[in-house]
Write a structure and sequence with these properties.
about 190 residues; alpha/beta; TIM Barrel; six-stranded mixed β-sheet; 6 helices; about 35% helix; globular
Length: about 190
């Protein structure tokens, strides 16, 4: 192992997804055929890890939205299988497009296969075409987002009124909240 590779490896060592001292790079696919775009994406990840980034993130969009992936959690699994060090995350996963039970199940299986290497950020989505492609209603996305992440506020009268509009207390499910922001998104490090 060269000195450069040793430094890169030590920079990634013990860095959890979105953890203290962890630095990630967002990867985007290029306007190429799917096979060539994925080859390019894997090259980007390889360069990121060699350069010392702790992890890489992949964003979700649908219906031909340029430079984005329709199934970032699937590609996270491919990347983690290919690269034995570092972490990967869907950043963000558009939660209102699918039942909560499905993405939690997929995430749990990834975390079981790649302990402490899977991350997740979530968002309610903002591109109407994503919802059209998934056959999901665009208008109620924020309510569905918060309900799928934490349950309905009506179900939890003990919750304090949030200081930041739209913020909610941390999750009690298989994924624990590392952060939630006022823009309607949250980051997760997945515990096994």
């Amino acid at each position: 192992m060269s000195k450069e590779e040793e430094v890169s490896a030590s920079n990634r060592e013990n860095k959890l997804p979105f953890g203290f001292g962890s630095v990630s790079l967002v990867l985007y696919i290029h306007d190429l055929s799917p096979t060539k775009a994925l080859d390019e994406l894997f090259d980007q990840a390889q360069h990121a890890f060699k350069a010392g980034f702790s992890g890489v993130t992949l964003a979700e969009h649908h219906n031909g939205f340029r430079n984005y992936l329709p199934t970032p959690l699937q590609v996270v699994g491919w990347l983690l299988e290919e690269f034995r060090q570092g972490w990967a995350a869907a950043y963000p996963l558009l939660i209102p497009l699918r039942p909560v039970e499905l993405w939690i199940e997929e995430l749990a299986w990834l975390a079981a296969r790649f302990p402490q290497r899977v991350g997740l950020a979530t968002a309610p989505g903002y591109v109407k075409d994503d919802f059209t492609a998934a056959g999901a209603e665009f208008a109620g996305r924020f309510d569905r987002y918060w309900a799928s992440m934490y349950g309905s506020p009506d179900e939890h009268p003990e919750w304090p009124t949030p200081a930041v509009p739209g913020a909610r207390p941390g999750s009690q499910g298989p994924a624990r909240s590392a952060s939630s922001g006022s823009r309607g998104g949250g980051r997760k490090q997945v515990d096994r």
